[in-house]
Amino acid sequence: MAQSNIEWTEMTWNPVTGCTKISAGCKFCYAEVMAKRLHAMGVEKYKDEFKVRIHPDALNIPYTWKRQKVVFVNSMSDLFHAQVPPDFIKEVFRVMNENPQHIFQVLTKRADRLLEIHQEVKWTHNIWMGVSIEDERVIERLELLKQTNARTKFLSCEPLIGPLPDLDLTNIDWVIVGGESGWKARPMDAGWALDIMDQCKQAGVAFFFKQWGGTNKKKTGRLLNGKIYDEMPEFRIEEL
Ligand code: SF4
Predict the structure, then answer these.
(1) 50 C-alpha vs ligand 1 centroid, how far in Å?
(2) Given ligand 1 and candidates 26, 131, 141, which is best to mutate, with the most ligand atoms within 8 Å of its CB?
């Protein structure tokens, strides 16, 4: 468990580490870079660098948090990766179910496997389920997400590397947009981000603009049309 610099969450929890690339959005995977760095620093959890590994000892961690948290699950992996055993995925859900005071944000690019397993897990109110959609080539993830029983559903359009003009946001609660950062970052067209913002407005969906990205993300900042967009899905603690 670690404090996070990711603007739309509070902290990360990684019961799985490691992954393999699956689509264009993975090209400059931040988790891979971090895993290699942590391996070089001798961190035990990353002794196998970016190979997929489950960490049963990490399952206890959410029980130790005293105050309510907003938690990004598996920032260093993809919970629905083919190499994560179904029983372990169910264990992760059990932990989330047993900690309803915390919000768990689960994000995947493996929407097909998510759909395969979604009926075998319990979708409590505190689990927000998202898919990454970086361009139109992976738009089918949106329809797969909609077929799940997750109560709160979101899209992460980051790194946004192409336009997404035809999002059907029916039953979607939240959309995050962000540009890629890093020295080889692929540029995000302002029109793509503004178009998604408009689609969210029309559909009544919460919109979060994370960053422009680029080679110096501090400099490019978070303003879109001169404003910060920090909307989150509606939830009330007593409902969790
Ligand atoms: S799915 Fe996510 S963690 Fe896995 S390689 Fe792609 S960007 Fe990295």
Answers:
(1) 10
(2) 26
Q: Which residues of 122-152 are buried (b: 16+ CB within 10 A; e: fewer)?
A: ebeebbbbbbbbbbeebeebbebbbebebbb
Cα–Cα nearest to 108, from 136, 138, 88, 87: 138
Lining ligand 1 with CB less than 6 A are 19, 21-22, 26, 29, 31-32, 77-78, 109
User: Hey, what amino acid is at 91?
Assistant: E
Q: Whole-prediction pTM value?
A: 0.95
Tally of domains in the chain: 1
CB 50 within 8 A of CB 18: yes
CA of 26 to the centre of ligand 1 (A): 5
Q: What is the C-alpha to C-alpha distance for residues 110 and 43, in angstroms, rounded to an integer?
A: 27
Degrees, nearest 5: CA angle 162-166-169: 110
Residues 178-236 have pLDDT tens digits of: 999 988 999 999 999 999 999 999 999 999 999 999 888 888 889 999 999 999 998 65
Nearest-CA residue for ligand 1 atom 6 is: 26
State which residues form the domain around 20.
Answer: 2-239
pLDDT in tens, 50-100: 999 999 999 999 999 999 999 999 999 999 999 999 999 999 999 999 999
Cis bond upstream, residue 15 (ω within 30): no
What mean pLDDT is predicted for residues 12-33? Answer: 97
